[in-house]
């Protein structure tokens, strides 16, 4: 049976505990004590995402109370397509992996929905937490919507979402506040950091933790990372089973959850060649690869706001996996893209293919265009498209001079009535809403 341990100690916990506790008690992040290796031929890249996830993740679940239910959990959570859209063919082939066909139109639906399905099952056993369990989440935009949507109406679970008043886009705010039922939305008078401080203060209070059975669903939860490896597996297998070729990925990167999952997928034996991380003007990761010095810093605001991270948490996992910075340089590369270039890329790609991408996806497209010809020739590159352009309409539409139609699911959410309470950034006020 596979167990999980903290990046900072050798103590091991079962899968269920790693999922329910989010971070390890020593402040480290949970990682599997070993990675299984699969034969690519044993998986079917042309099946749905759920069937790939079921096979890829089986070793992590084997022996746990969820093992028998993995197929059902995957089918329940991963019930939307992740199409590989060919953009350019020939000797330098380019595709886009579209991860925005879930309910909130961003890749975070994959991790959040899988986590919600797992937690929903775990709480019914009562072994790791007593329902009702309260998921407390601070968000600067995309995460909160994906989590609220994923946990909405799940028995035994409720969600409290904190977002900074006036600092998320109108469409993002709507996705945070349109739920009702078991989802409570709170606008906090302050910044994202104030929201995060409140959440940390609540978790640091053992009485509150116990009374409300507080749990976290943030992006460092291993239950969100594991399913993300499945779309890298599916996309690379799909291409490999058709052509016998490997695929290389360029991944828009902030907290490094999405990018890290690609490294896992390759280590698990999937037909993946290069992995490139594209960041915005928050350059902590590319600077580290260049200089060898890890220097986290405060984040700066950019057009690709879901990647505004100055201290990417999942680097701790990546370093634990690859050793020193030389080990890291052997596995991945990274480069930063500034706002002016994001704007130019959005316009340029719209001219080229008539397609509107989101600002995050633009960072990856730009790095593809910058690759030396020798890197492009004879390779299949996949740019990871992390959100639908319609989520970032206020950035994209003026640049392209056209409106971007929201996908059906997003349009449905945007039409629902919204409701939220506003609180000061104080723990007492948060507690009164729990
Ligand atoms: C969260 C997010 C990212 C960054 O993903 P990480 O896992 O934090 O690196 C990129 N694009 C979009 C649209 C996102 O919502």
Named CATH architecture of the domain at 81-107 and 223-410: 3-Layer(aba) Sandwich
How many β strands by DSSP? Answer: 14
Q: What's the CATH class of the domain at 81-107 and 223-410, please? A: Alpha Beta
Query: What multimeric state do the chains show?
Result: single chain
Q: Looking at CATH, which topology of the domain at 81-107 and 223-410 would you report?
A: Rossmann fold
What is the percentage of strand-forming residues?
15-25%
User: How much helix is in the residues?
Assistant: 40-55%
Notable characteristics:
single chain, 434 residues, alpha/beta, Rossmann fold, five-stranded parallel beta sheet, globular, binds pyridoxal-5'-phosphate
How are the elements arranged and paired?
Blueprint: E1 4-6, E2 12-13, H1 15-21, E3 30-32, H2 49-61, H3 70-77, E4 84-88, E5 93-98, H4 108-125, E6 133-138, H5 142-151, E7 157-164, H6 170-177, E8 183-189, H7 192-203, H8 206-212, E9 214-215, H9 222-243, E10 247-252, H10 257-267, E11 272-279, H11 284-291, H12 315-322, H13 325-331, E12 333-336, H14 339-353, H15 359-370, H16 373-376, E13 380-385, H17 393-400, H18 408-414, E14 421-424, H19 427-433
Parallel strand pairs: 5-13, 6-7, 6-9, 7-8, 8-14, 10-11, 10-13, 11-12
Antiparallel strand pairs: 1-2, 1-3, 4-5
Helix pairs in contact: 2-3, 2-9, 3-4, 4-5, 4-9, 5-6, 9-10, 14-15
The structure holds pyridoxal-5'-phosphate.
Describe this structure in words.
By secondary structure, the chain is of the alpha/beta class. It contains 19 helices and 14 strands. It has a domain of 215 residues: Rossmann fold. Helices cover 44% and strands 16% of the residues. A six-stranded mixed β-sheet has the order 4-5-13-10-11-12, sandwiched between helices. It has a five-stranded parallel β-sheet with strand order 9-6-7-8-14, sandwiched between helices. The protein is globular. The protein starts with a strand and ends with a helix. The site of pyridoxal-5'-phosphate has 18 residues, from helix 10.
